[in-house]
């Protein structure tokens, strides 16, 4: 043996003997700073307080208690809110807000002609009862939940049953599931109602984040997924940046590394990477008998697959593919009527929860027990670990959890006014923004609790207020507008309704609705409509297999397939998030590609042609055609100028395409 070889052998032996001992020995627990009175006094961590609407000088303005909170702040600055918007503007605003779709010409006609003093409230009730409501507000939640139909990362593998969680969310909003139940089922639905397949599907929330199944070390994969899951639960339900404490104590908030791993301990005893049967109690018994017969073969195949993946996934790819086929056959061997879902369930074996030094899965620290973040409260945790997850779910869902209630109320407000009362919906800590109207947030939170977590009741309180109905344009009262703009340019005092651009899904759905092509079929696997030729030329094999059936291509955008590494082009250019992390509020950009996409895309011109054909059937003169087009696309009657533009265009299809590109179509006042 050469000296160099001998030295190398000695170094390797020393590393194994001494290095490994240091690598795998228990790391000491980090210091944990105490929670101070100032920490607990932070606005978001306090218990809910009872507040009353303030007194105001102008008692003639206002329809609900919400308005008194708004007006009191405006009067402190000697400001007045804008007057009420016109009826057509109000109808378009509320219809897009609650359903993501434009009102029909018939709905516009009925609302403009109605003399009923409660006509607006009747519109609100009709929209909240519409199945289109759940599709719109479900999408808001799916943004927060980081939902996608694929894993992300290099291979971006398809999750064949992820759509079941999307459908569950839409259905939950449609049926106004109490928010407490909405929370409990997403965190512990498999434990709360183990015999209810829908409740099991709800736990898909925990697994919505990106994943890398083909990673060499499955221990690292599990560690990464659990960390992502823990961070998401903290952000989404508590407005706490728990993920920042995975490697060290939070630099700004009273969240220790131990807090993070105690929260993670609730999810440690979960089976994460096998799709679960969505079965009733009787069906589960039949499955248990079947699995008992097949367990030996299943375990043998999974062990072999894991070995091949760790050895070399590329060289062993043919054998891995064959094993996947065998496993799929075993998975498919289920009793009739039982489907599979992407969901969690308690692990069959006890799992020890540990802290990991610097967040490194190889640096194992002390054992930790499940507990809620210290600054946010306390909860008595059951000693049996799988059931501990129900304790976490109950604690978050409790009406006494002021933090969780404020977070959800703020999310609902955000999607009606363009920003939350607190501008950082996922961060209610010291790096977040204090609420512009803290008493209003507190009052709404109490009302939300009083309604037993009814999201629809909260919508109704907000959208029937006088403040929600204010005009968003200067023409309504130029002097008042200028005063508000000068004193409050960012509209934090809410004296006027901000203008909002439609998102990509609303634009697509509104175009299809205008063209009379929108397919209102609900639920089911994600649809992949054809992509533009210039995009298709760049795709990998099987990256976007178009769904058979042309009629399915015009379904609502909520049901389109969501691929992390290939966002639908129209959605991407209009700022749809990539789903790699929770998105509480979409960025709203204004770019040249947006205008070019709308102006030149085949989709725009197909919709314009269909719209023009439909109008030509019932409207003969240019004035009639312009009026019909404006009522369908812009939700208002045509003006003489509109008729002149049609004459100038010389072609009804071109005129319709111009309307679909107009700012008046793309923005809600």
TrEMBL record:
The keyword DNA repair does not apply. Pfam families: PSCyt2, PSD1. Residues 65-270 form the DUF1549 domain. It comes from the Bacteria. InterPro entries: DUF1549 (IPR011444), DUF1553 (IPR022655). Residues 1-25 form the signal peptide. Keywords: Signal. Residues 389-646 form the DUF1553 domain. This is Planctomycete cytochrome C. It comes from Caulifigura coniformis.
